[in-house]
Design brief:
This protein is mostly helical. The protein has one domain (21-140). It has four helices and no strands. The longest helix has 76 residues, at 23-98. The protein is rod-shaped and about 120 Å long. The two termini are 73 Å apart. 1% of the residues are buried.
């Protein structure tokens, strides 16, 4: 035969110590069991509701993150398109200055090389602190980004 569980052992020990319950004690004990069971059901339902609210919040946050991510990626694509265009324009100007017969061609080449170097040293990520700031900057700048 297996060993009794601690609860079973406690129950057996209590039988010898506790007096025979009166009908009022039985009713009170029954009411305590009902109250405990009702409290348990209430807590379970409250926690279930909280879990559902958390899942809904999580879903909303994930949608917000995806929209911000898509916006940021589009903004970065546009920024890099703009940078690429600026580099292309500067190199076209450099090519023209290199073959120029103008007296100030050397100064113009030096100026364009300085502009290329300055553009290369700047990063579109240097001021990036949060996606909200990026969105705010683009909105304030009046830029239109098609998604």
């Amino acid at each position: 035969m297996s060993q009794p569980t601690p609860i079973q052992a406690l129950g057996k020990a209590a039988k010898g110590v506790l007096p025979k319950p009166s009908p009022a004690m039985v009713v009170d004990t029954f009411n305590l069991v009902l109250a405990s069971a009702n409290q348990w059901v209430k807590v379970i339902n409250e926690e279930k509701t909280k879990r559902e609210e958390i899942r809904a919040w999580e879903h909303t946050q994930l949608e917000i993150i995806h929209v911000q991510r898509d916006f940021l990626l589009t903004a970065l694509d546009k920024t890099f398109d703009e940078r690429r265009e600026n580099f292309r324009r500067l190199f076209d100007n450099l090519d023209a200055a290199l073959v120029s017969d103008r007296e100030d061609a050397a100064a113009q080449v030096a100026e364009i090389l300085g502009a290329i170097t300055e553009l290369a040293q700047t990063s579109p990520f240097k001021d990036l602190k949060s996606p909200a700031l990026v969105v705010q900057e683009f909105l304030q700048g009046g830029r239109v980004i098609e998604l």
